[in-house]
């Protein structure tokens, strides 16, 4: 429980930083052009590698619907969510292309 509250505080702090940057006159990232975002985290921020991480990956619950039915190819994505993650929304704000899960890049498990 304490870890969840701590994570929520960190998330709130990060989001307030992004909101502050968004309210600054002009585009603070205008001079910088980003084409990729790297995020380290847990299952909340995983972009689909859970299917490929372990031998039982394709048998995990994340390899079946509803995980991913509202995302890209409307097939299971390996994400622990059914849609976009926080990092996806940050990428949309700063015009960074969304990445599909690794399973779609490789094509097979």
TrEMBL record:
Gene3D superfamilies: SGNH hydrolase (3.40.50.1110). Keywords: Signal. The keyword Translocase does not apply. Residues 1-26 form the signal peptide. The keyword Metal-binding does not apply. Belongs to the 'GDSL' lipolytic enzyme family. This is GDSL esterase/lipase. The lineage of its organism: Eukaryota, Viridiplantae, Streptophyta, Embryophyta, Tracheophyta.
């Amino acid at each position: 429980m304490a870890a969840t509250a701590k994570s929520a505080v960190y998330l709130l702090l990060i989001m307030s930083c992004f909101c502050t940057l968004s309210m600054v006159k002009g585009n603070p990232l205008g001079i910088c052009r980003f084409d990729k975002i790297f995020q380290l985290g847990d299952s909340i921020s995983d972009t689909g590698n859970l299917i490929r991480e372990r031998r039982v990956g394709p048998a995990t619950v994340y390899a079946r619907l509803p995980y991913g039915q509202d995302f890209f190819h409307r097939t299971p994505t390996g994400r622990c969510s059914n849609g976009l993650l926080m990092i996806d929304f940050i990428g949309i704000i700063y015009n960074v292309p969304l990445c599909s899960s690794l399973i779609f890049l490789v094509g097979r498990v």
